[in-house]
Amino acid sequence: MKEFIITRPDKNKHKKQLAQIFAMTFPNNNFYKMYHDALDRYFYNSHYDWENSRVGLVDGKIVSHFGIWDYQMRIGKAQLKTAGIGAVLTHYEHRKHGYLKGTATSSLAAAKEAGYDFSILFGIPDFYHKFGYSRAWNTSNYKISLNNLPKEKPELNVKKLKKSQYPEIEKLYNNATENLTGTAVRPTYNVYIKEDIGYCWTDKKGKILGYVFVKIKHDELECLEAIGNAEQILRAVAKIARQGLRTNVNFSFLHYELPVAKALRGKNCVVETHFEACGGPMAKIVNLKTTLQKLEAELTKRMKQSLIPDYTGELLISNSEEKVCLKINDGKVTVSDNSNTRNFIKGDYRLVEMIFGTTEPLETAESVGIKFGGEGKMLAKTLFPNRHPQQLIRDYF
Fold it and tell me: Read out DSSP for 119-187?
C-alpha cells in the first residue's frame, strides 16, 4: 500500500490539483465552470482556512480533502469562531481506505487548537455523525403566487445592484441579522456568484435602504436573499417577477425571524420545512467551554428577560467530550471551573442542538436523549429556547 500523508494544502503548489479534484467530485453538470469557480471565489479570494484545512496525499497527489472556511457565526448577538466545512471528498480511485477519516480528524483537531468554537456543514445523509455532527436547523422555503403579492408599485425605484455597492449592502445585512442565530457575519466571500442578480432601492441621497438577490428559473422567480422593509421587498419582488413573466416566487432559505418572513406568514403562501435527522445542515461543538464563554452575555439577557430574572445557582452542562459549569448570580451567567451542583444538562455530541436552539429545548431533549437533573429542565427552557437558526444561502461553503 502506498504511503498516505496528511498535510496542510499549499496555496501555490496544490492550486490546480485542488480545483481539479473539487470539480471532478462536484461537477454540477459543468466541470469547467466548477474548476474556475474553485480558483476564482471558492478556495481563493475567500475565507478558506489554509492553515487548518487538510489534504491527504499519495505520491504527492491530492486524494482527500477536508476544507474549513473561517467565519463568525451568530447565536443571538454572540459571535462564535466557526469552522464552515466544505469540499469534503476522496478521489474515486482511493476510496474505502479510511483516507477521509484521517484527513477530517486531523483538520478538526487543528481547528480546536486554533481556537474555533463551533462548526457547520451541509452533508450527505447518515455520514457526518461519525465526526460528531448533529442537526443544525430545519430549512424552510416560502412559496407564494404572484396573485398573492402586492399589486402596488414599489414606493422607491428598484435598480440593479452594482459591484461597487456590495460593501454597503453587507453593512445593511449585518445590521438586519445582528440578532439572528445561524447567520454569518459578513464579509465572507470576496467574489459573488455571477448567476445571482441583485436589485436595490435607495433614498433621495442614494443611501441603500434594502435589496434582494434573485435567480430566474424555468417556472418561478427564486429569491435568495431579501433585506429591508418587508412591504418594499414584496413589491420589488413582485415587479421583478412580472417583468420576467413568472407567476410564482420562492423565497429560499429564509430566516424565520426576518421581517419579510413574518410578512409572508401573514399572507396566502406555502411554507415547506425540510427536516433531516442526519444530513443537510449539521453542527458540531468544537469547544464547549469557549462556546459558553462567548454566550455569557446572551445567556444573561435570556435570564433577565425570563420569569426567573433573579435566579441564583449553578448548572453543569456536559457532552461526550467536556463538562462546563455555568454559575448564575442574580441572573448573571458566567462560566465557572468548579461545581458540586445537582442541576445538570447531560447529552452526547447531539447536545449541540440544544445549545444552538435548533428547536424547542424539551423537544430536542426527547429527540436526542438529553438528560436533566435538579433544576436543569427549567434552566434549559430559559437559557436555550428555539432560536430558529438558519444561514442565508449566499454564505454557504
Answer: EEEEE-TTTGGGGT-EE---EEEEEEEGGGS--SPPSS-EEEPPGGGHHHHHHHHHHHTTT-TTPBPSP
First to last CA, the chain: 33
The stretch 119-127 carries a mean pLDDT of 97
Return the CATH superfamily for domain 287-383.
SCP2 sterol-binding domain (3.30.1050.10)
Among 226, 233, 221, which residue's Cα sits nearest to residue 254?
226
Query: Fold match between 4-116 and 140-274?
Result: yes
Is the separation of the CB atoms in 298 and 77 below 8 Å?
yes
- What homologous superfamily is domain 4-116 in, according to CATH? Gcn5-related N-acetyltransferase (GNAT) (3.40.630.30)
Contact 213, 192 (CB under 8 A): no
Domain ranges of the chain: 4-116, 140-274, 287-383
pLDDT per position as a tens digit, 4-56 = 999 999 999 999 999 999 999 998 879 999 999 999 999 999 999 999 999 99
- Provide the 10 A C-beta neighbour count for residue 115: 11
Reported CATH class of domain 140-274: alpha beta
189-215 per-position pLDDT tens digit = 877 776 679 999 999 999 999 999 999
Phi, psi of 362 (to 5 degrees): -75, -30
Nine-digit cell string for 354: 440544544
The single residue listed with the C-alpha cell 460593501 is 167
The percent helix, strand, coil of the chain (3-state, each to 5) is 30, 30, 40
3 state DSSP class of 234: helix
